[in-house]
Amino acid sequence: MDWTDRISSNADICHGKPCIRGTRVMVSVILDNLADNVDEEAILKNYPSLHRDDIRVAIGYAAELARERFVSLKTG
Question: What is the pTM (predicted TM-score) of this model?
């Protein structure tokens, strides 16, 4: 699934942070929930404007960032 169709950034919405198109749900909120082991059903219940595919595109967006950027990590 192409995340570029479902994620947008607008300076007037959430300070320009990437959001699921047509909502004010930031991609980082979805990813933070997943990282905290919140299951998809709970995310969808807590954010009723989201669809299951929105969770998938948030993961795809994060994967794209991981391919394009990196953060220095401690070695050893």
Answer: 0.87
Which letter does DSSP use for residue 4 in this model? G
The C-alpha atoms of residue 72 and residue 75 are separated, in whole angstroms, by 9
The string over 37-62, giving b where at least 16 C-beta atoms fall within 10 Å of a residue's C-beta and e elsewhere, is: eeeeeebeeebeebeeebbebbebbb
Spatial distance between the Cα atoms of 12 and 1, rounded to a whole number of angstroms: 26
Q: What's the CA dihedral at 39, 41, 43, 48 to 10 degrees? A: 180
What is the enclosing helix (H) or strand (E) of 8? strand 7-8
Q: Give the pair of three-digit tokens for residue 73.
A: 């990590």
pLDDT tens for residues 13-64? 999 999 999 999 999 999 999 999 999 999 999 999 999 999 999 999 999 9
